[in-house]
Amino acid sequence: MAEQVLVTLDCELLDADEPLLHADDMAALRGDGVFETLLVRRGKALNLEAHLARLAHSAELLDLPETAPSDWRDAVAMAVQRWGDRREGALRLVYSRGRENAGSAITAYVLVSPLNQRVHQARSSGVTVITLERGYASDLKEFAPWLLLGAKTLSYAVNMAAIRYALRNGADDAVFVSSDGYVLEGPRSTVMILRGRELLTPPLDYGVLPGTTQQAVFAMAEEYGFTATYAPLTVVDLINADGAWLVSSVALGARITSLNGIRMPEPAAAVEVARLVDRAVEKAD
C-alpha cells in the first residue's frame, strides 16, 4: 500500500496500514458522518480554515457533537509535519458518530495520502464530462432540509456511482443537472464557467455544496481582472461558455474539454484561470 499518514483528533499517530474503525462504526454501517478533503503542498494544508468551517457546518446539519477547531488544527499540523514537504498529498478530515451503541465516543481522524494519477491527468489535460439527472428540482433544499443538501457527508455512494457511470460511458466525470434543467455540481467538484471576463457558478440555494476552492477563486478574481457571479446556469450555458471547469480542492481547476460529446474550445484566458485557481488556494488562509 502507498505510504499514508494517519493521526487521530487527539493527536495520536497511528499506523495507516492497521485497522482503525470498529465493525459497528456508524461511518461503515450507515455513512453517518462528514468529511473534508484538501491539498497538502510544500508542508502546508491549503485553505484549511474554509474546510474546517464547512466541516463544522456539515456536522451541525447532521446533529453531530461539536468538535473544537483547534483540535483539528493540531491534528492536521501533526499529520502535515509527518508527511513533510516532499510532494503534494490529499488530506482528509473524517468525522463520524462513532460506534452504534449510544454513548460511544466519536470517530475523528486526519489521513494524508499521495495524489492519484487521475488528479495529475485532470490538471494537465482537462476532463471530458457528461451531464446526469440528479432527480430533484433546484429549489428542493428549501423544502427538504433532512436531505442534507449542501452538507459534505460520508454517504457518497451516489456520487461514486455517477463517476463510474461516466467512466463506463466514455467520460472522465459528470455534472449533475436538476429536474427543472439547471446545472448543479459535479460528484466531487464545483462547476465554474467563463463568459467574457466573468466567472459564474450555480447559486448555493440550489442545494449544491459550498465550494471552498470556488469561493477562494471568487475572493481573488478581481485581482486577475475577472468579475465573479452566482447565477442560474443551464447545459446550454455550459456549451456556449468561453470556458468551463470542474473546480475542487485537490484537482484544482480541471478544464472541461468536452460536454456530452461536444468539444469545448480552450479559452484564451485558460492559463490565467489556472493561475488564479492555484494562487487562490495557496493564499486563502
UniProtKB/TrEMBL annotation:
GO terms for molecular function: 4-amino-4-deoxychorismate lyase activity. One of its GO terms (cellular component) is cytosol. It comes from the Bacteria. Belongs to the class-IV pyridoxal-phosphate-dependent aminotransferase family. InterPro entries: Aminotrans_IV, Aminotransferase-like, BCAT-like_C, BCAT-like_N, Class-IV_PLP-Dep_Aminotrnsfr. Transmembrane segments: none annotated. NCBIfam families: PRK07849.1-1, PRK07849.1-2. Keywords: Lyase. This is 4-amino-4-deoxychorismate lyase. Its EC number is 4.1.3.38. The keyword Lyase applies. It holds the Pfam family Aminotran_4. The keyword Signal does not apply. It comes from Hoyosella altamirensis. GO terms for biological process: carboxylic acid biosynthetic process.
